[in-house]
Amino acid sequence: MSQTLLSKWTRPALVGFLGLLLLSPFLLPYTVNAKEGVLTIGNAGEPQTLDPHRYNLRLEETLLNDLFLGLTTFNAAGEIVPGAAQSWQTSEDGLTWTFKLRDNLKWSDGQPLTAADFVYASQRLQDPATAASLAYFMYMVKNAPEVNRGELPVSALGVSAPDAQTFVIELSQPYPYLLERLLYPTAFPVPQHVIERHGDDWVKPANWVSNGAYTLADWQPQAFVAMQANPHFYEPVSIQNVRYLPVVNEQSAYNRYRNEELHVIGSFPVGELERVKTNYPNELHLSDLLSMMYLVFNTEKAPFNDSRVRQALSLAIDQDILTDKVLRSGNKPAYSFVPDLIADYQTTPLPHVGKDRAERLQQARELLDSAGYNNPNPLKITLRHVSGVEGKKVNLAITGMWRQIGVVANLQQAELRNHFADLRQGDFDVAWAGWVGENNAEHYLTLLQSDIGNVNYGRFADARFDDMIKTAQQLSSAIQRNQQLAAAEAYVVDAYAVVPLYTVSVRRLVSQKVSGWQNNLRDVHQIRYLSWSD
Amino acid sequence: MTRYILKRLLFALVTLFVIITVVFFLLRLAPGGPFDGERRLPPEIEANLKAAYNLDAPLLLQYGRFMVNLAQGDLGPSFTQKDFDVNALIRAGLPVSLMLGLGALVCALLLGLSIGIVAGLKPGGLLDTLLMAVSNLNIAVPTIVAAPLMVLLFSVTLSWFPGGGADTWWHFVLPALALGLPLSAEIARIMRGGIAETSLEPFVKTAKAKGLKSPRIVFLHLLPAASIPLLSFLGPAMAGLLTGSVVAEQIFDLPGIGRYYVQGALNRDYTLVMGVTIVYSFAILSFNLLVDVAYGLIDPRIRVAQT
Questions:
Q1: pTM beyond cutoff 0.90
Q2: Is the minimum CB–CB distance between A410 and chain B shorter than 8 Å?
């Protein structure tokens, strides 16, 4: 019975199915590649907001740099160049900065953009009602912390517009790196006339007005952010349409890049690096990022309050092995807490750098012994890190290096948010941490200041170091300030509060359809500097 | 029957309430908060943020406020997707998730029914062995493994399908297939058993003796009788599709609510996670309710026993 049931209708069905499968490439209803004429970029994730005053993530900076133009901005090489301001002057004491705006600046709706817009934006950033999470980026402005705490009205903030093209910032103490700080979206202008009309909904594509090279055309959450060239921008751009897609997963980014769905991706799995080097040599962009990955000791907790223990653990770590043998992802070994990529600054490497490894291990054992730890009584510690392949690999290797000096280390991993939440609460022995900072040493060294807050995870406190930093912060000349900071670093290096490990290397793929891409230390790439290759 | 349905409905509502309450407090127990980002927050700024999102109130009061807003259909603002409220996010994501779920169900039913019928008509035959082997493979290989392999083959190598996104219905083919495959295998097994068993029933022999054509016997006599066990399976299967869609949406970069769920949980976006939890719970409870009611309608014994 079943024989006849089967044969009569399955065979044609099977043949049909096979035929359809073979024909399917010719039946494709859509092209799978990126849309013609739309630069499609894989971003590291979904932006949480496009309000420059409420943003918090680097991946949001990427978008905001295309949508807005601050007083200063980056060029394609990542250097600071004039943005909305065409020139600026600093007073003798370094406390008053006067910016001259470009002629005929306009918002994307054609309204004129004046210095009053910068005053409004500065006040809005510090207004407690805005709840700007990065308001402290501009705390050097006179009265900013007081305004942000609600103790003074926003009108008390040290910003003013003597005329439509002049914007003046007064500082509470000298800050020679101000031009760099103005690069961040926290210092971008926002359209007062639109915000007052639409309230929080001003960021919706239908209401959107900005002053950057591009405006927001559409935003489908988790799907894409679409931008188009701003007709009122002060100079024309080559690429008219851009789409940023949130592609969290590196493998997915890599697959979609290879399928030509994306023109640019921010990262791909490190395991593919060798293959990419052979297959896409002209599309691979490996570049150092201004950053520091380091281990931090909980200096409030025994035995890590003993600098001999910290020194011993530091001596045993070989940064070269971590980057060249373990990670193999192009990361650069770091021997000083301030990255040696920073301009006009002389870093102080760890004292033992360059010494023979056997000698270092011997010294480490002696230090541990003097602190009371030896074979019968080994030092037992827990090393905390962020979960993920890279974190696991590096930290496992470090425990191996510590084993060579008789230290028994357990690994404990946690998801990023938990990890840093615990670090801020001081709930750790030794922990992996990372910092993507500015192009100045102060941004790194202040992490070791005793009154900086819980971002000094290890609660390191040294009165003399604090004084040295505070002295530096009174200096308005960048050269003198850098010298003083370098002295502070040279002093603090002997305390072994942290162990520098490596600086991150960014692995990008950029399609050959796009030209004008330049690697830079901040990994910022405004679309207006790019164009289609012919 | 009405009493039975009302009883199930009440039970579903109580379950939903318990889920919402438990998840609300569980979320607050997790370390870290929605405002922990890549960068540090000074205490005064954290205070501003907490005030802006009503997180400075006592927890019980927050719970009360949440429930009152929920009763009015307002899920609140998203803590991390600051430019959207949760209602808007779910409005944007739900159609994508529904499309994925529906696509997966269609794939699973099409594949599962045809494989099951073909295999069940001649149990123990070569085709049966082959098809069941494929089905076992489909059950054994989870979506998280099958999906990347499919992307590698169909998008990276062959470039037939996009590897992610949701711009057109073409984008849904691979994810729906990846999500539907394990389910299709289970449907195939159930159908195979049903067909094989039912083929031996006297009424099939009668139909055959009457000289009815084979397709007519299969579709009019065998299929309805063999489908009853399938019905009881579909309720939990839909729940499986929902949870599976979280994985598929991650792998295929689909902007559905499953992705919000994962990211919301990682970012401690309390309101977003609550919103998605409510949608998921509502969906699962509805399926279960529907299956319960369908049971009652089909099988009078259940109706009698439960009332």
A1: no
A2: no
